[in-house]
């Protein structure tokens, strides 16, 4: 989705968190679990009030979050510093991004948390990556227009999350897909017909092609031929819209699927490598370089078998 991005700090062009003193959580303040819920929904007050309405800077390795603030105000700390906001507003925080929030105690809304594996499935159904590459926010004007739909949708999400019926998982998945479909529609409508809109459309088409072919490790020229553009045109569009290169977007998709398969545990590391078109030794180096740990260590940490 092509919303305004928080600028990255110097020396960190993609806004990714560095390993170090920044806490790494599943849900903020909770002890990490081997298998977090694929979808978790809670009212904003649940966790924020417990922590004095101040969520200190932290990050999530494999969890993505959507904050819908329907009432109140506060500030969001991202890679580009601290920015004030006033409701209604929606914030998208992809996995790995350092973020912190402060809220006025009268604030109200919801927090949606999604695992990488669940989000990968959403990407296949929506036809594009649901989350941006860096922290993004829906513009206040557009959030106000969508406030009624968002309130109703998050209310249904919370009700489905609290339910114990046999259709619980299907209901949650359906509501999440509806949310991201709504956001994608909004991004396309607000992009307009100009250069920004053309670039957004090109990047969407590229990501759809990546979704079909990422396991084949096709070269950039393959995608450019399919899209009818030059490599430099595609690269400029990807950097303008997402802040990342085409290769980084392909690697991001490969890593998301690798993490999903490793957590699933039905394949060992070699099996995951072959499923993604890698030789096992190269896959291990690729995964280690991007994730900071071996695939076997990741699988053990997340409950799979190695």
From TrEMBL:
Keywords: DNA-binding, Transcription, Transcription regulation. InterPro entries: Cupin_HpaA-like_N, Homeodomain-like_sf, HTH_AraC, RmlC-like_jellyroll, RmlC_Cupin_sf. Pfam families: HTH_18. It comes from the Bacteria. The keyword Transmembrane does not apply. Residues 1-38 are annotated as: Disordered. The keyword Acetylation does not apply. Residues 1-12 have a biased composition (Pro residues). CDD domains: cupin_HpaA-like_N. PANTHER family: ARAC-FAMILY TRANSCRIPTIONAL REGULATOR, TRANSCRIPTIONAL REGULATORY PROTEIN. This is AraC family transcriptional activator of pobA. The lineage of its organism: Bacteria, Pseudomonadati, Pseudomonadota, Alphaproteobacteria, Acetobacterales.
